[in-house]
Amino acid sequence: ELKVEQNPLFLSMQEGKNYTIYCNYSTTSDRLYWYRQDPGKSLESLFVLLSNGAVKQEGRLMASLDTKARLSTLHITAAVHDLSATYFCAVVASGNTPLVFGKGTRLSVIA
Amino acid sequence: DTAVSQTPKYLVTQMGNDKSIKCEQNLGHDTMYWYKQDSKKFLKIMFSYNNKELIINETVPNRFSPKSPDKAHLNLHINSLELGDSAVYFCASSQWTGGNEQFFGPGTRLTVL
Fold first, then answer.
1. Which residue of B has its CA nearest to A97?
2. Is residue B27 within 8 angstroms of chain A, CB to CB?
3. A14, B5, B16, B69: most buried by Cβ count inside 10 Å?
4. Cβ partners under 8 Å of residue A62, min gap 6
């Protein structure tokens, strides 16, 4: 059974600082997604990582995938308040199975 | 254009009542899902339908019954509501099953009193 673990689950960081959120998963997969959820809102797709070594960047966020280590990272550069949200990674085990979501990382960026 | 829509957005009801949540997607996707997000923000898949056929039915009380009249719609009916059913319910769709990127609806916040 595929398990997806994110850490940390809660993160409070100062504006301007850098930090990394980790997503580990337990079985082979070559497809991983990152979603963002603002308080009281729906989930919005951020990144789709489809192969080993994939790296995607959007603004201050950069996501990468290492399928051999079964690890994805979401790196935040020079955090700003607008990045405060909950970030989920989601992984597919194989073939016809749906995504399995991590528990989410609740990020608060403070001045 | 709204890709995945749900109604209602908020639902407040008494224990024991029966209620429905509707979901529609205009993306032409084959697969639709229902998720439950609890107060700790954990997302748990409940059901998945592919082209009107049930393909995933997680351990969910049988008071919950999904219905898909066509592949663009997936409704969720809940009988005999309980306090523990209070949560946000999200509908999602993907092009097909198999780890495809999922697009989420705005959510329905259900409060059972």
1. B98
2. no
3. B5
4. A55, A56, A74, A75, A77
- Beta-sheet strands, E only, within B41-102: 43-50, 53-57, 64-70, 73-78, 87-94
pLDDT in tens, A4-48: 999 999 999 999 999 999 999 998 887 899 999 999 999 999 999
> What are A42-97's pLDDT values in tens digits?
999 999 998 888 999 999 999 999 999 999 999 999 999 999 999 999 998 776 67
- CA nearest to B81, candidates B15, B5, B13: B15
Phi, psi of B77 (to 5 degrees): -110, 135
In angstroms, what CA-CA distances link A40 with A82, B41, B58, B107?
Answer: 15, 10, 25, 9
Token pair recorded at residue B18: 């029966």
pLDDT per residue, tens digit, chain B (113 aa), is: 679 999 999 999 999 999 999 999 999 999 999 999 998 888 988 999 888 888 877 778 999 999 999 999 999 999 999 999 999 999 999 987 766 789 999 999 999 99
- Residue B92 with chain A: CB contacts under 8 Å: 43
Q: Please give the backbone phi and psi of residue B42, each rounded to the nearest 5 degrees, phi first.
A: -75, 135
User: Which chain A residue lies closest to B40 (C-alpha atoms)?
Assistant: A103
> In the 3-class helix/strand/coil scheme, how is A17-63 assigned residue by residue?
CCEEEEEEECCCCCCEEEEEECCCCCEEEEEEECCCCCEEEECCEEE
